[in-house]
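Onboarding guide, step 5: your first structure request.
Type a short instruction followed by the sequence, for example:

Predict the 3D structure of this protein.
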Amino acid sequence: MDDAHFEDGLRAAGLRVTAGRVAVLGALGERPHTDAETVFRAVLAELPGTSIQNVHNVLGDLTAAGLVRRIEPAGSAALYERRIGDNHHHVVCTSCGAVADVDCVVGHAPCLTPSDASGFTVSTAEVTFWGLCPSCQQRAEVSSHAEQSD
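The system replies with structure tokens like these:
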């Protein structure tokens, strides 16, 4: 997406358009499921005077405005993505930490219904699936074959 699209989205969300916000949105478009440190490194060339704290502030603003989603898989730093509004879930590799999207099982939010919501009105459900990504499966298979031949 181009900067004009990001600028329109920022204005529609009631946020001021800044170079930092546009750069962070661009970085997240190229790197979904990214932590703040990775976003910082991605925007540093474009914004040489920025700081990691500035990136954290921008990510907080974008998350609060609903332009970015923050996910927090157990044992991981907070990760950010631009895919919002569809109540999708995630699968996380237990070996390397890779994250991928998993569409809702039912197709509409919240795609899961608790047996007892204790009077709450549930609007979303967050599910994290855990397993081995294809690369780690392949490494495990190669390692297993190597051990068997020793």
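Each response can be followed by summary notes, for example: The chain has five helices and five strands.
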